[in-house]
Every structure is written in structure tokens, then in C-alpha cells.
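Hello,

Our lab assistant flagged a job as stuck in the queue for most of the afternoon. It eventually completed. Since we weren't sure the result was trustworthy after the delay, we are filing this so someone can double-check. Below is the sequence as submitted and the structure that was eventually returned. Let us know if re-running is recommended.
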Amino acid sequence: MLKKKIIIFLISLLLSFSFWLYVTVEQGPEVERIYKVNITYRNLTPGLTFLEPLGSAEIKVRGSRQRLMNLNENSFTAYVDLSGLSEGPHSVEILVEAPPFVKVVEVSPSRISVFLDKVVRVERNIRIEFIGSPKEGYVIEEPEINPDKITVEGPSKKIEAIRDVSVVVDITNIDSDVSISSIPRVKDALGNEIEGISITPSIVYITIKVKSILSSKVVPITPNLVGSVPSDYGIKSIVVSPSVITILGNINKLKDISFVETKEINITNLTSSKNITTEVIVPEGVEIKGSKSVTVQIVIERKIKKEFDVDISLEGKNENFNYILDIKTVSVEVFGFESIVKSIKKEDFLAQINVEGIGIGEYEVEVKVKCLNRNVKITGVYPDKVKLKVEKKEGGTP
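-- returned structure --
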């Protein structure tokens, strides 16, 4: 009989502990926590990619303290569903997958703007950019690069912006043959490195042979342009081939020479691209290693202005308010090279008004405009301010 009572007591004790544990873990006081989660995507149409990264979102959840203590950012999935979306800008909702025992209270931001662009693949030659010069009494011969071309793949707008693919080779104080590896750098017309693209191969190999001489120095060749093109034209690019030259002479003479110029190239009233074969001017007291002949490619293009009617979008809207604009589009004027300006579309612009934190009332607000093509300049936005009326929705919370 005593043994039976002990067993009943132990069973009762176990049930009491189980009930306490359930109440503590499952029914205890709820708390809120915020997790920062990288945004992923699903159902992207083949052949398209993102112009810019998706970023991250903050997810606020509510649940029991014990449950939330065991969670981290990897416990949640934040993603956008791109089903059926085509090339161009889109505003998409951020969706969240969370453990079943927590409640998602808020996702910030709740939507993001994405720009889908077609994937393009091109092949580009690699230019070698030298830093420094060999040790006194040495000169480098023509370098070898393997491979001498790379394949670049990415969004079409970023591929179109490519103006230079180069590797940087430091030849400071070298006095013997060297073989090095380098990562090609892809840059736009302003010299900025283009991100968000892939290159194949990612590493190239350069062999530099060094020859001993009295004294030598590798200097860039600068085209000596005189005159100017008409005001409605511009020089889109200048390429000198070869771009550098080796000069030989007394060390004291060479130290004062940082570049050599070509003979004068007259570009007065030039309105079309031109390839010019000319010679470098040899400074007094030095010699040139190799040929004096160089080719200067001058790309000339007309510059134009063009206006685009761009729809205004609102960012940071409150779901309890109605937002009324007196006009829904602005006229955006851009200026740049004709081929670039003509390739731009209305979809390349974002005209936005940030209404986050704006309450009920009437306002005059600024329209902020940006162009996804960085090779043109926005010269005007008309009008640059519009009237905004904010009203409470029927049944909405103030």
C-alpha cells in the first residue's frame, strides 16, 4: 500500500512539473524582438538579374521569452516573389517565413524597389596599367598577359557602362624577370569600378621581362591636342596605343620627365571620330626604346538634351492615409552624348517623394529624381516641387 502511494506521489509530482514547464515556456509572458535578415528572392525569370543588391529587412516578432532566446537571424527567411515580373523597375512586397510558435508583428521595410535587367555577356581586351618604374639601369620589354581577354557578365546597363578593363602591375624597382597574377578591374567612363558583375577568368597572369641598360623609365604618352570641338560636341574617349613608352638616358635627366607628348593634333571643328597616326616628341638628351610612332583614337560624339516624362512614386506611405498629388509626372531633362541619351528609357528614372512621417494636411514637397544610367547628367526637373494632400482613409487609424 505504501509503495502504491509513493508511485502515485511521484506521478503527481511529474505531472505538476510538466504543467509548470508548459506554462512557463508556452504560456509565459510574451516579449518582442527584432531580427535583421538578408532579403532573398524566388521565381526570378530566366535571363534577368538585379541591377542592385536586395539588402536586408528588420523583422519584429512576438512570442514567449524562452522560445525567442533560442532564435537568431537564420531562423527566419525574408524574400520577394518575382513571379511574372519582366525587365524594368518594380515595387515588391517582402514576405517572411518564421517558426510557427512566433508571430510576425512588423516587417520594415514592408516593400522594396527592385530593378530587373537582362543578363548580357561580352568579351573585353585587358589593358595593363603600370605603377612605378624598374630599378635604375633596367627597362621592361613588352609584357605578356594570359589570357589577354576576359568575359564579363551582368546586367545590361552595367555592361553598357564599361569603358576600361585593366590590371595594375607594380614594376617599382624590379631588376629581373617576374611573373605575377592580378585581378582585372572593370571601370566606367568616370573611372569608377563597376560592381555587381562577374568576370571569367577572375585572375590573369602577367609575365614581365626586364632588360639591363644604363638608365630607363616607363612613362605614359599624352596626346597634345590643340583647338577645340564645336560646343555641341564632346570628346567621348581618347585611346593612345601604345599607352606607355620606355625612355633611355642619364638618371638625372630622366627623373624630371613624367610623360612624353605627341606632336600637335588639331581637333578644331572636329565632329566625327578619327584615328590619327603620329609620333612622340623626344625630350632633349634622352632616347626612345622602340618606335616613335603611336596611334591616337579620338572618339567624337554630339551632345544633346532630351526630356522624359517620369511617373512620381511615393515611398514610406502609411496605410491609414490617402495621398493625393496635384500632378503625377515630372519632366526630367538630361544632357550627354547622343548615343547614351538615345538609349535611355523612361524606365531608367526614379522620381520619388518620401512621405514617411508626414501627417494629415497639405504640403509642397520636393521630387527627388535619379537616373540609373550614370553617364548622363540631369540638368532640370520640372516642376521640382509638387503639392501633396494627405487625408485619413475611412475607418483608418490617425
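-- support follow-up --
The delay was a queue issue, not a problem with the job. The result is valid. The mean pLDDT is 86. The radius of gyration is 32 Å.
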